[in-house]
Amino acid sequence: MIIDTFAKRRSQYALGRQHAYGQAQIEQIVRDAVRQAPSPFNCQSARVVVLFAGEHERLWAIVKSALAAIVDRESVQLSFDKIDTSFAAGIGTVLFFEDKTVIQSMQRQWPQYAENFPTWSEQSSGMAQFAVWTALAEADLGASLQHYNPLIDEAVRAQWALPHSWSLRAQMPFGSNQGPLPEKAFMKDTERFRSFG
Q1: Which of the residues 13, 45, 125, 142 has the least number of beta carbons within 10 Å of its own beta carbon?
Q2: Number of compact structural domains in the chain
Q3: Which domain holds residue 64?
Q4: pLDDT at residue number 172
Q5: For residues 169 and 101, what is the distance between their CA atoms, to the nearest angstrom?
Q6: Virtual CA dihedral for 150, 146, 50, 164, nearest 10 degrees?
Q7: Is residue 28 in a domain?
Q8: Is residue 87 part of a domain?
Q9: pLDDT at 183
């Protein structure tokens, strides 16, 4: 059942590089997941970059450089340690973007819904992220979702010559599961759900 697949998705911070997949296979998993994720009016505004090897490590060097400029020395070292032993230790990173040009085009095409498209874009991005994360989990790859944007936006855009219209929404480091997946705590259903009828 699909819910069982959803349940495999957890934040994994113990990432490694011991896996059975080639780069092309992982890229295809990501492409297929994003392709199947819904978007408002099927506008397909999600844009994705998958970084491997040295490019993956370059991203986390960018993050560290950005953090070093704004965080005190003691705190920044803790952040560096987490980056080095978790995010950068994996196979790669998926960068999720939303293309603002597409959203603006939809706003012009559907002016009666113009104010809703930015919100719908964020929802669509979240669904793409969930789809990729779940697909990676199904392939027995661990991942977590990080948000160093907007701190790293300009450096990322410049490093990989990405269009200015691509707005960075999240970073997903992934790799082999080098530790047990954490249990997820759930709040009481009575506090979260209601049903009528």
Answers
A1: 13
A2: 1
A3: 11-176
A4: 98
A5: 15
A6: -10
A7: yes
A8: yes
A9: 86
